[in-house]
Amino acid sequence: xxxxxxxxxxxxxxxxxxxxxxxxxxxxxxxxxxxxxxxxxxxxxxxxxxxxxxxxxxxxxxxxxxxxxxxxxxxxxxxxxxxxxxxxxxxxxxxxxxxxxxxxxxxxxxxxxxxxxxxxxxxxxxxxxxxxxxxxxxxxxxxxxxxxxxxxxxxxxxxxxxxxxxxxxxxxxxxxxxxxxxxxxxxxxxxxxxxxxxxxxxxxxxxxxxxxxx
Length: 214
Hints:
37% helix; alpha/beta; six-stranded mixed beta sheet
């Protein structure tokens, strides 16, 4: 059976959930120029890919975090993945809002969560780690024991790796930037000589010298 990292990488490339454009880079909200566009929400509208992704997330939870009692999705991208994965596993799930509601019970955590429960966070992608660490912080403040994070894709950026380590958060991703970049070259989504440029971006997004490199 093919390595799950490769399977998911090929799936994401096929539906353009991950799309490389090193010669015409995208601009992130932060102003950073990026050779990659990532929208894992597209997996939800591709049934075959969705099955691969959610099955792999379920297997990852079982294998890496067997003590998990509740899945919590990040808002909003992780909610559907958490729900489908929890359904496969027969587990309860909820999600964490980016901020508390300003009405009703003013919840930030949606779904039942007891103090001391063992939680796994479900995220669609990890870049610098900021958003998922905010979710972890909210859950910990509520008394949950956060076992770790499962995500579809990680950039493997140094800043993200360091921040997760500092917060004592373990992330397990189905696939990563390096795997996808190499498969993209093998399957002619990008030129083989562009892989070094892609990895240069991953290593230091602030350095734009990769844009004109050959």
